[in-house]
Write the structure tokens for this entry.
Amino acid sequence: MSTAGRWGLVAHPAAALNRPPTSPVFKGGSSKRKGANLRNATAEADEWTDDVPVARHGGTRAGAWFAALLLAGVSTVVGCRIADTDGITPVPQLLAFLPWLLAPTSVALLFAALSRWRLGLVWSVAVLAALAWYIEPYGKTSQPSGTPVVELRVLTSNVEFGQATDDLIDAIRDQRPDLVFVQECEYTCEEKLEQAFGKDTGDKGSKEGGGDAEDSGSGAVGEGSYPYRQAVEGAGSDGSVILSRHPLKPAAGIPATMGMPGATADVRGNEIRLQLAHPMPPLPAHLSTWREELSDLRDYAAANRTRPTVLAGDFNASQDHAVFRRVLDAGFGDAARLTGDARTPSWPAIAAPPLGAQIDHVLVSRDFSANRSRFLDLGNTDHRALVVDLTLFKRT
């Protein structure tokens, strides 16, 4: 007898043929139910995933990958901001527009949600939180102590190769600043400013309009109203000039690719150091020059932090650039920050406001308070002009 027969596993052939086929039917039904349950569980698990989903529908997968690409790009820029570095191209260029990276991050959040990508949602929220943190204006807002002695109105403008000189002249006549910092003032620009406001002729125009708290920015503006000037002559973007109602003494400027003249103003017996800023822009081929020239401005700020100083111009950098924050950390305040306008764009003028970056600044030593800032739209230039009202305090 076979082994199967010994254990009674095989009955009489007739009995085997007459056995009801119920067991295989029930087994098959159970298998179908288990398969359906497994498919339902798999479908539920596929709704949310930590990985970029390999979905049944190509659109869901493409949306998740699109969100991942957006987040990777924005995270690189935000990571450099967190690390306090400007990185390499294209990070320095994108850092200028840090607040506007909220837009692609929000798009990434939307696509991650539509794709049911859990990790993408967490990633998007984390990047949004970091952006919200760093959008907060940078720098201190403390007010100087002592006695107010002089009020000054300062205007800075990049006239883009001299093209906006006529509009600048109108703005000067309207705003009546005490000090004017003009970047990209080539030969024709200089000639027009000389014709409109005169040139240093000794005592001519030495009346100090705007020299005290009562007549800040006052006095007729016209021929001879800005007889004092310090300039670096040049063509195209190389020329720059400082105009003043108050007597100026020459001072060493900062050697740079584009003109950055310096001077010392005598305002009612108070010496104020003046330095025009116009470093190279962060073009991919000139990043090292951009960093070096902003580092020179930082060194200048550190050397003059204990004396009344105004450092104004087109810095080609915003508060989101590490090299610009170094200038502020040397002991200077950003006038627009002090008046609550730290995120008002100044460039490019065609998009500002509401879009753009603030790269035109008036920085002041701790001897000054800033009372008011406003940005002016001039024609024929890609920069908005900046006007600030300052008060100089005498330390006690």
